[in-house]
UniProtKB/TrEMBL annotation:
It is an enzyme of class 5 (isomerase). Coiled coil: none annotated. Its EC number is 5.4.2.6. One of its GO terms (molecular function) is beta-phosphoglucomutase activity. This is Beta-phosphoglucomutase. The gene is pgmB. NCBIfam families: bPGM (TIGR01990), HAD-SF-IA-v3 (TIGR01509), PGMB-YQAB-SF (TIGR02009). It catalyses: beta-D-glucose 1-phosphate = beta-D-glucose 6-phosphate. Belongs to the HAD-like hydrolase superfamily. CbbY/CbbZ/Gph/YieH family. Keywords: Carbohydrate metabolism, Isomerase, Magnesium, Metal-binding, Phosphoprotein. Its cofactor is Mg(2+).
Length: 232
């Protein structure tokens, strides 16, 4: 069998490994309601992959209340949203890992390829523990040490570096527009899950469709195109 050129596969967490993206939305919706702003799932697409404080800023701008609160009040609101979110996490269990993900992880591991996590959530450790998935990851980038949220490439580059993997030979999997931008800016092959991810190199509607054979095949086409010199 031809040895894979793939050095690592780096997963986003919320919305890829489990449906906590929906819990983030519910918690933000509750917080926004408390200050008289109504958000819906379409607006929420913009919040995916964005840090807690940056998300709050976007919600305040959306409600035209960006000048109404002090830094302390904003921190209080962000903490309150986190309290709402963490209540949902209390019910999170291993059976909430999204369909297709356990098999995908097994197939990647069977080829000796490393697995990383690139989530900007400070709750990522709690989520992985509740899902009993901590052992599946060879390296998890620490959101607390990341200074720029997605779409900046920092978190995917940190994950690759923690795995000693070349980003140009690694794959990132994301459900957010900002996440796909982050993967592409880091030079990796981008796999998108969901709609509105046109910038990805490969898109699937649901996690169930994330077949490792298909991902590898597309990665091989992509890397051979990348490695063909322009002069040929
Ligand atoms: C990302 C989510 O994974 O983490 C965002 O897509 C969220 O919606 C961000 O705001 C930060 O998460 P947390 O748990 O630190 O508030
Ligand atoms: Mg996500």
């Amino acid at each position: 069998m031809k040895k894979s050129m793939i050095e690592a596969v780096v997963f986003d967490l919320d919305g890829v490994i489990t449906d906590t993206a929906h819990y983030h939305f519910l918690a933000w919706k509750q917080l926004a309601n408390e200050i008289g702003i109504t958000i819906d799932e379409t607006f929420n697409e913009m919040l995916k992959g964005i840090s807690r404080l940056d998300s709050l800023e976007l919600i305040l701008q959306y409600g035209n209340r960006q000048h109404d609160f002090s830094t302390e009040e904003k921190e209080e609101m962000a903490n309150k949203k986190n309290d709402h979110y963490r209540l949902y996490l209390n019910d999170l269990k291993p059976e909430h890992v999204l369909p297709g993900i356990p098999e995908l992880i097994r197939n990647i591991k069977a080829e000796g390829i490393q697995i990383g996590l690139a989530s900007v959530s400070k709750n990522a450790g709690t989520v992985l523990k509740a899902l009993e998935l901590e052992a599946a990851f060879d390296f998890c980038a620490d959101a607390a040490k990341i200074s720029k949220s997605k779409p900046d490439p920092e978190i995917f580059l940190t994950a690759c570096s923690g795995l000693s993997a070349d980003p140009l030979r690694s794959i990132g999997i994301e459900d957010a527009v900002a996440g796909i931008e982050s993967i592409k800016a880091s030079g990796m092959f981008a796999v998108g899950v969901g709609h509105t991810l046109q910038e990805a190199d490969l898109v699937f509607e649901t996690t169930n469709q994330l077949q490792w054979v298909n991902i590898k095949e597309e990665f091989d086409h992509w890397i051979s195109r990348c490695e063909t010199p322009d002069s040929l």
